[in-house]
């Protein structure tokens, strides 16, 4: 993405750099309350969650498969089959309204929307599959430094942000319709928040997975690392990744860029989702296995899920969650 952005300029003033949404660091929610009991509980909880999440990640790469559902064909070589792509655009202002009403993050809102829309699509095509065992593989950037660098900066000797991908996986089980409740769409947002927050704040599995990938690559080569990644993706139902795009409109060779999206290609999954913010909009792209998943119908369910969540949030009298 850095290579692409280095070729683009601000449409309003090419002499100014592109700016991106600020990344908020999560402060300690316990404040100064560091009692011995609370500290010990947090330590044991972190150790347990880390071991559980890391072992789940390893199992997903070799043996633990998701159920075959309307979003997972389980067909070998799915990455070589034709695909279909659809995109849906949401207003960031509307997403921020939901965020403020519920006291959650933007990622919680859009993740809950995607999960609910996906489950509704599954249930429509195959009644009962809305509660099947399905896992989403979230691809995370593990670079230490925030923001983007130009190609020239990345290829310099001893660059603080060198060229290359640095990522890890986060396995997120899709909330089930029977558990979250289709009649209460906000539960998908809260459930997504609960799972992601626990894995982010009370587990080091993401970093262990990243280190494990580095070790596998070092001792078994790129082929060994690729085998691990391929196995993990093949055994899960869908992949999700997101990118923060610039706040201002961009231009390529003085031609304004009206919109853009991205999606990870070549993955052994029937469904891959890419999320990108750009100039006040958030665009969700779905890439699906052609003739197995109907991309237009899936898009329609995601739009419907967002409408359900937006209406429920705006009419909700529940006080916002504490951050």
TrEMBL record:
<dbReference type="InterPro" id="IPR045034">
    <property type="entry name" value="O-acyltransferase_WSD1-like"/>
</dbReference>
<dbReference type="GO" id="GO:0019432">
    <property type="term" value="P:triglyceride biosynthetic process"/>
</dbReference>
<feature type="domain" description="O-acyltransferase WSD1 C-terminal">
    <location>
        <begin position="163"/>
        <end position="309"/>
    </location>
</feature>
<dbReference type="GO" id="GO:0008374">
    <property type="term" value="F:O-acyltransferase activity"/>
</dbReference>
<dbReference type="InterPro" id="IPR009721">
    <property type="entry name" value="O-acyltransferase_WSD1_C"/>
</dbReference>
<dbReference type="Pfam" id="PF06974">
    <property type="entry name" value="WS_DGAT_C"/>
</dbReference>
<dbReference type="GO" id="GO:0005886">
    <property type="term" value="C:plasma membrane"/>
</dbReference>
<protein>
    <submittedName>
        <fullName>O-ACYLTRANSFERASE (WSD1-LIKE) FAMILY PROTEIN</fullName>
    </submittedName>
</protein>
